[in-house]
Amino acid sequence: MTSTAALEKREPPIEIVAPVDDELLVENWKRLERFKQRVLTRDDYVTIAGRIYLKKSAWRKWEFACGVSDEIISFDRVPTQGKDPDGSFTYRVVVRAFHQRSGRSSVGVAAASTSEKRDWGHEEHDVFTLAHTRAKNRAIADLVGGGEVSAEEMTSDDARTKPRGDNPVPPASSPDLSKSASDLTNEKLASLMWAESMKLPQLSTVKVTPDLLEREPVAKLLYDRLKASKDASWKVCDVTYKLSVTQSGMEFLQRWQATSKGAS
């Protein structure tokens, strides 16, 4: 056997790790976006220092929706007893989130310290619980591909910032309405996850959420223009867009398509 033949025999074949079917992947991501728009409510978000974060309740909903389980792998207290020279102690927790059917898992590591907050109701328990919540949220986010930073990642004193009110958009000086009408075309707005009405075929809606307004610039632009409009409506060619508010305060973008009898 020649040296070249021996070398070829020793070299393993090159295999490329290919992603799953792209159509299936796109559909699954759309389902996740619909979940965030339809299931998460304003109570699942909090505004801290002008930014919007998902709260613990949002991640628990996400965990339930995706069939994810979790377990504590380990935890440490530093120092093991008492407090350090600065008068504080820290808990470090490691959590594994896993999906039984697919076999996928992800590990989240987080810590919490008494130095993050001036007043603790039950210091030992609360610090451990905060570290556990952070680690669990991280593990779930990594596993489901969420990516958002949870509210519990912020310092506890910062997290006391007043929760979001009726307006799901962080405070701003004024909406930017200087762009031309060409920025809001029906083609661009069609990219949003519109849900068709069962009773009114000409109507479709999108629930307004902080995530939607942050991730979809065209949704934010439409929302700002509807809020600035006297009758909360905006017409683009033969389609009329409106902003509706339910009795509970939830907001929806509406898309009314013209019919033979005209748009509603």
Please supply descriptive tags for the structure shown above.
264 residues; alpha+beta; five-stranded antiparallel beta sheet; 23% strand
Please explain how this structure is put together:
- This protein is of the alpha+beta class.
- Helices cover 30% and strands 23% of the residues.
- It is built from 7 helices and 10 strands.
- It has helices at residues 3-10, 22-38, 56-65, 123-144, 186-189, 210-215, 217-228, and strands at residues 45-48, 51-54, 69-78, 90-98, 105-113, 195-196, 203-207, 233-236, 239-245, 251-257.
- The strands form 3 sheets. It has a 5-stranded antiparallel β-sheet with strand order 6-7-10-9-8, with helices on one face. The protein has a 3-stranded antiparallel β-sheet with strand order 3-4-5.
- Helix 3 packs across helix 4.
- The longest helix is centred in the middle third of the chain and has 22 residues, at 123-144.
- The chain is globular and about 70 Å long.
- Mean pLDDT is 77; it is low at 158-182.
Topology summary:
Blueprint lengths: L2 H8 L11 H17 L6 E4 L2 E4 L1 H10 L3 E10 L11 E9 L6 E9 L9 H22 L41 H4 L5 E2 L6 E5 L2 H6 L1 H12 L4 E4 L2 E7 L5 E7 L7
Helix pairs in contact: 3-4
Query: What characteristic shape results from the CA principal axes?
Result: globular
Low-confidence regions: 158-182
Estimate the mean pLDDT confidence: 77
End-to-end distance? 82 Å
Number of helices: 7
Q: Which H/E pattern describes the elements?
A: HHEEHEEEHHEEHHEEE
Order of strands, main sheet, comes to 6-7-10-9-8
Number of strands: 10
Give me the secondary-structure category.
Answer: alpha+beta
